[in-house]
Design goal:
Blueprint (H helix, E strand, L loop, with lengths): L5 E4 L6 E3 L2 H7 L4 H10 L3 H8 L4 H11 L4 H9 L1 H4 E4 L1 H12 L4 E6 L6 H7 L8 E4 H4 L6 H10 L7 E5 L2 H9 L3 E4 L3 H10 L5
Parallel strand pairs: 1-4, 1-6, 4-5, 6-7
Antiparallel strand pairs: 2-3
Helix pairs in contact: 4-5
Length: about 200
């Protein structure tokens, strides 16, 4: 692992807190079971990920309303109140990121599943996003993790060798996909675990 020259960070869940529960837990008056039913059956993760891959938010919303007209008000909240789902930076991880930024030996980029329509909100809110060598946004590229194309794009665009690159993501599916392409990868669980892993593999930051 002492050959690592590049680090790819995921954003949501690693550096930035995002959770639709910030809106819907209030909407459903604290009923976690009802909220989970809504995410499992109506505004599902698969549906949201389709927008992360570039599908227009308005079109996705109208189609979902047509499918479930009785839940129109709740469906429109998903992107209508999206900014309220965006939490704060995960400061302990940002501190690790800043150490990579300050170290001359590493090229640091981001690879995120994020709608191109909402990503400008994050760019405006979080200053550290402007320090990356580059950010690959799935919604802009019209593909997303865990599909191989987006990893290949990130490697090619920034001249990264897979075997010299560490990928950090909270989603095990995305980590496994990166590993299958020869990218050294770790599933992020919390900042303390990530810091311990970085030390364990001998990265100097």
């Amino acid at each position: 692992m002492n050959t690592i020259k590049n680090v790819i960070f995921d954003l949501g869940g690693v550096l930035i807190d995002w959770n639709p529960a910030y809106v819907y837990l209030d909407v459903f008056e604290g009923d976690h079971k009802k909220m989970q039913w809504f995410f499992d059956e109506i505004c599902t993760m698969d549906w949201n990920e389709n927008q992360d891959a570039g599908y227009p938010l308005d079109q996705a919303t109208e189609e979902r309303v047509k499918m479930f007209p009785q839940y129109e008000q709740w469906i429109r909240m998903y992107y209508g109140r999206w900014e309220e789902m965006l939490g704060e930076a995960i400061e302990e991880t940002v501190n690790i990121l800043e150490r990579f930024f300050q170290h001359p030996d590493y090229k640091v980029i981001a690879l995120t599943n994020w709608s191109a329509e909402t990503f400008p909100i994050a760019l405006e809110r979080f200053d550290f996003l402007h320090k990356f060598e580059g950010i690959v946004v799935s919604g802009t590229e019209k593909t997303r993790k865990p599909f191989p194309e987006i990893y290949e794009l990130a490697l090619d665009r920034y001249g990264l060798n897979a075997e010299e690159t560490l990928f950090i993501d909270d989603n095990l599916r995305n980590v496994n996909a990166a590993e299958a392409m020869g990218i050294n990868s770790v599933q992020f669980k919390n900042p303390k675990q990530l810091a311990a892993y970085i030390s364990e593999i001998g990265l100097k930051i």
